[in-house]
Amino acid sequence: MAYPSIQSTQAALAEGKTTTVAIVRQYLAAIKEQAHLNIYVEVFAEEALQEAARQDKARAQGARMGKLAGVVLSIKDVICYAGHAVSAGSKILDGFVSPYTATALQRLLDEDVIVIGRTNCDEFAMGSGNENSFYGPTRNAADVTRVPGGSSGGAAVSVQAGTCLLAMGSSTGGSVRQPASFCGLYGFKPTYGRISRHGLIAYGSSFDQIGYLAHHPTDIALALEISAGADAYDATAPNKAVPLYSKDTPERSPQSIAYFAELLDSEALAPEIRTAMQQTLENFRAAGHTVAPVSFSFFDYVVPTYYVLTTAEASSNLSRFDGMRYGHRSPAAKDLAETYTKSRSEGFGTEVQRRILLGTFVLSSGYYDAYYGKAQKVRRLIRDQLQGILDTHDFILMPVSPSQPWKIGEQTNDPVANYLADIYTVLANLAGLPAVAVPVASANELPVGYQLMADQWEEAKLLEFIRGF
Ligand code: GLN
Fold first, then answer.
1. Residue 442 has pLDDT above 90, yes or no
2. What is the set of domains in the chain, with CATH numbers?
3. Protein residue with its CA nearest to atom 4 in ligand 1
4. Residue 133 a catalytic site member
5. Quick one: pLDDT band at residue 248, thresholds 50, 70, 90?
6. pLDDT of residue 17
7. Omega of the bond prior to 151 within 30 degrees of 0, cis?
8. CA dist 118 → 26, 41, 47, 459 (Å)
9. Which of 79, 124, 128, 201, when mutated, tests ligand 1's pocket best, judged by the most ligand atoms within 8 Å of its CB?
10. Residue 401 Cα, ligand 1 centroid: separation in angstroms?
11. Residue 239 φ then ψ, to 5°
12. What is the pLDDT of residue 1?
């Protein structure tokens, strides 16, 4: 099946071969056909059709169309969209309607993107298999008995199953790259701060970034170009010029690519992933690039550091969900204290409660220095060592995940196994670096991808490289 790109969609519209209404109808039909995959928490069918009709009329009248006219987007259920419900896959936000729109989404809307619905995800984006959602698991379209990855699982399947052209997701530790590779897509997480986080429901604020999933890297490049850049509502999005990522200048000159040989030899890596990585290294070499093994001394500390820091930030970020200000309030509560405790106990799922408890513990006065303070220092060491590698190499090649998609229900009783599987993706978030998952041929029926990481703000170089390759 040939998946349409932004360019092919807009060419078909310009030549009058189709209409925007027809495109939206087709995606809505796909959503209906694929209902068993549990991709969407809510579909904005009427609204999407109305906007499509408005665009067709404007086009017929010769109006200047936005850069994303006719482009159908799904948004992960952590992105605020004014007048629309948003729940972060949680019961605690039940009934909450966002009063404002995320900056990144607003910039896409200003260019005529059409939002088709909000996609299922792990509760508060905490998870790697989309099994922690209040709305139940999303299924992988490549094998419906398996997970699509997480936390942006619905986002990934929305594109995989042809129910939209592009998906907006979010990454705190891999939630765009890992589901993309579990579903055979490109998934891109920019440098920390490249896209404003205003209107993205916070999980770990010093890690969170909005990212995109698509069949074609050029589509990601255009969405990034439009949504990136400074924002008065987010002080961590600096005033740094946004390059023309979508300019079609594939990079074919020799690049230097570092990889961690010890990782490829690791027992923990599934054989299909090892084969895909070795093949990728071979392909890079054959294309004239230099590949060089490098070492990294902190692999044992990567996952613990990530889980100490993100749970600490989450315990603080999620304290605002108190039964008073948003969403679910326990009807059984008799006084103020019970309103807090009962609403939170009823509203949050098991995994979110586990992380709030862990985060509160590592921040508590007796343990702050031993856990939180220490993890902050290790984060700096990890970042500095990666920086050293990127000072002498253009990219770092890694697997995305040690395994291919697992069976739904297979790992839900073992949170530690789930945490450990995040080892390759959390690195880029710990260091704030841009990274992309690229789909490659698999030795079996299940999708597989590799990951490339670049230096801060080098999104253009990364996107040009994967497009040229
Ligand atoms: N799997 C990781 C976690 O559970 C990453 C999730 C994410 O990037 N949102 O925290």
1. no
2. 1-284+396-469 (3.90.1300.10)
3. 127
4. no
5. confident
6. 97
7. yes
8. 17, 6, 13, 26
9. 128
10. 12
11. -85, 75
12. 55
Q: Does residue 401's CB lie within 6 angstroms of at least one atom of ligand 1? A: no
- In short, whether 172's Cβ falls inside 6 Å of ligand 1 is yes
Task: State in Å: Cα 277 to ligand 1 middle.
Answer: 23
**DSSP-assigned states of every residue in 352-382:** HHHHHHHHHHHHSTTTIIIIIIHHHHHHHHH
Cβ 74 under 6 angstroms from ligand 1: no
Q: Name the residue type at position 445.
A: E
Q: Is 128 in the pocket of ligand 1 (CB under 6 A)?
A: yes
Predicted pLDDT of residue 415? 85
Which pLDDT band, with edges at 50, 70 and 90, does 139 fall under? Answer: very high
Amino acid (one-letter) located at 199? G
Ligand 1 centre to CA of 303 (Å) is 11
In this structure, how many other beta carbons lie within 10 angstroms of the beta carbon of residue 262? 12
Known catalytic residue at 151: yes
Task: Give the integer Cα–Cα distance in Å for 69 and 147.
Answer: 32
74 classed as catalytic: no
* pLDDT > 90 fraction of the chain, expressed in percent and rounded: 92
With both helix axes pointing from N to C terminus, report the angle between 459-468 and 217-227 in degrees, rounded to the nearest 10: 160
Give tens-digit pLDDT for 291-341. 999 999 999 999 999 999 999 999 999 999 999 988 899 999 999 999 999
Ligand 1: does its nearest atom lie under 6 Å from the Cβ of 175? yes
Query: Which one is catalytic: 5, 158, 171, 175?
Result: 175
Residue 76 is predicted with a pLDDT of: 98
- 276: nearest Cα among 398, 164, 362, 378: 398
Query: Is pLDDT larger for residue 279 or for residue 444?
Result: 279
Mutate to test the pocket of ligand 1, among 76, 126, 177, 200 (most ligand atoms within 8 A of CB): 126
Q: What is the mean pLDDT of residues 20-24?
A: 98
